[in-house]
Amino acid sequence: MLTLLLIILAVVGLLIIMRREAGAAAALTLLGVLGLVGLLLDAAFIGVILLIGAIAVAAAGLTALRRQWLTPRIFNIFKKVAPKVSATERTALEAGSVSWDGELFSGKPQWNALLNYKDEGLREDEQAFLDNQCATAAGMCNAWDITIERADLPQQLWDFLKKEGFFGMIIPKEYGGLGFSAKAQSMVLQKLSANETLMVTVGVPNSLGPGELLLKYGTEEQKNHYLPRLADGREIPCFGLTGPRAGSDATSLPDVGVVCKEVIDGKEVLGLRLTFEKRWITLAPIATVVGLAFRLFDPEKLLGDEEDRGITLALIPRDTQGMEIGRRHHPIGSPFMNGPIKGVDVFVPLDTIIGGQDMIGQGWRMLVECLSIGRCITLPSGATGTARYALGWSGGFTRVRRQFNVPVAEMEGVQEPLARMAAMGYIAQATVYQTANLIDHGEKPAVPSAILKSQLTEFQRVILSDAMDVHGGKAVTIGPRNYLGIGYSANPVAITVEGANIMTRNLMIFGQGAIRCHPYVLDELAAKDANDINAFDKAFFGHAGLIFGNAARAFTMGLGFGKPGVPFDAPAAAYAQDIARLSAAFGLCADAAMASLGSALKKREMLSARLGDVLSNLYLASMVLKQWQAGDKVEGEDALLHYSCRFLLHRAEQAFVEIFDNLPNRALGKVLNAVAMPTGRRWDKPHDDLARDIAKRVSTHSALRTKLLANTWDTDDGEQPNPLARYNALLVDYDRAEAIYRTVNKAYAKGELPQTALHPEARVEVAFEKGLISEEETLFMREFETQVLEMLTVDDFAYDAFANNKDTLIDHNAKKAAPVQQEQTSSVK
Length: 829
Hints:
CATH topology of the largest domain: Butyryl-CoA Dehydrogenase, subunit A, domain 3
Helix content: 55-70%
Oligomer: single chain
Family: Belongs to the acyl-CoA dehydrogenase family.
Largest sheet: 7 strands, mixed
Keywords: FAD, Flavoprotein, Membrane, Oxidoreductase, Transmembrane, Transmembrane helix
InterPro entries: Acyl-CoA_dehydrogenase, Acyl-CoA_Oxase/DH_mid-dom, Acyl-CoA_Oxase/DH_mid-dom_sf, AcylCo_DH-like_C, AcylCo_DH/oxidase_C, AcylCoA_DH/ox_N, AcylCoA_DH/ox_N_sf, AcylCoA_DH/oxidase_NM_dom_sf
Pfam families: ACDH_C (PF09317), Acyl-CoA_dh_1 (PF00441), Acyl-CoA_dh_M (PF02770), Acyl-CoA_dh_N (PF02771)
Strand content: 5-15%
Transmembrane segments: 43-65
Number of strands: 9
């Protein structure tokens, strides 16, 4: 009995010490005391075992002892197996900052570290711009007109965008820009997502491009010249990075600049001779100034002793002699300006280098530092805005579209995608807004930028597919009335650009986060490079303590013990506690994967992707809780919170299961499974009752629908019709209409109305004649049904409308000419 008691005390005590990462001295004391108790109370065997354990802990855990024999051996092994970090990888790793992503990597996230990023909301001028200028711009757009008729935005819209400073949102007011916060930029792009081409056109100049690069790195002369001109639209920028042979691997640029001297107007000018071929460059066909990334060489050593000077960035006027620009690509589903740029032996002065000579060779660092912010804003905001419009349209359509005498929104097959769309939109809104809030507090979230770009554009893919499904024939028939189909076809652009999602998920999220966000790995690698054994000892054994701590935290919380205190009230508290549990499990699995695979983990992209999936879902869930905690709640929002968190935590656990099943070391996979999920999976998919509740609220005039669609273009006073405003108006009147539908349809079912009254309009008129409904109700229903029919109607065209070359048109119904009767002859043999 005493032996069992000592074992229990040792296990429980060690778990507590490990959870708290109390260190070797605490473990040594516990084991030593329990061992002595065993020897003194006739439990000699367990006492000896515990004392041996205490000796082992002392030898491996006490700094003075381990540095004599253990640390040198581990250090030598580590130097052989640690992955080599190239210069470009190190630049990417050192770019940006670590905030909440680091907390999730630690396995013991401190929620106050996230909640302390207070949200001050939008400034008065930012909100006014969102309410007025953004609504006006969105109101000038019709997808059919822009995509099919013009292949461009209308001229008056271009003029309006320049006049109102849309291209200068990130440029400070002292240079003539709007000086907007990251949150305001995001909200603007969400509102402009009513039209894909409009959002991209405004988003790109405010993302990765000359404006941000000039702000951070430009010389004062460059800033003073270009920033005011970019702010007011006199200059339209583009940035040439990708090319035929440099896409996701942007560091493999084949474009070359050579330092040389050129005689211009009788004067010798030091400059660069550039040869380049770029493609997929947004705004290139109309750009007046071109940012260019290239590899710079100085074979004559005119600038110093180095010949290869590295990736460098320059800003080149459009009319530079020898530059070929103006042709267009045709991006799928959206005719935003995009095209190639070429040049052979194009000479530019040295002062075209962004930042001047001091920034020669710093181009890759400049790009990744800017990209970490831009990728958090533009495409994630576009995806979030698209989600909101798609939900608003779909909720409205499914409520007014009736089949089998009921709105299709009452059918569970439609409620399921509606709820999924609402949850994904809710998650996206929270994530992009709260990450922008981090940026406004000075953070440069590198790893979250990869999470947002890949996860939210994938959400967009699912949401648009769901929206197409519930709209049916309304959405698959293209024309001016179709507000959804063209945007749906453009979705692959968001999936592909700014780091294709395949690459981002498989290589970047965990690949970068494992080193950048981990509390110890970067220090270990730095100690290796510096050959500093003492620094390595501190980092490595701190790392070891974290591994034991995460194992203990994951295991005990998996059993339901030791749930951490969290600064949330119900219903959010349980989700925050489980994020902490899964964070500990994630930290443990990340270390196990790195330790067991070493540098080979780089090639295990599917495993890396699943580890990234865990981190992504925990980050998204955290942002949802932050938004819930900070915002005002409305009726029904708790159902959306439950659905969203269950959805994300279910996905996180699924990724864990796939990690355990696919680790090359099968025994390690089973051990991790037992430690991280001792009682099995905890989270099912969201239940059907949640889906039914959410679907009803987003397809009716409810507080939840109003909140989800806040700050979208929802007024019907633009130059173009606004389907969202029209659906909203119909939903306001829907309850009244539904009561009349029930009266009329009941009368029809009883035979009180003629069987020939098949259309709703016909039934209404006959019901009025028979006194079943009042004149006021009849007038109301006439107008209501007129509006409903307008929203259900699709476009049709002249037979020859789609043939660009009318000469190729086949008239299948043309009257055939009578065959010529040939005179019959016979021959007599």
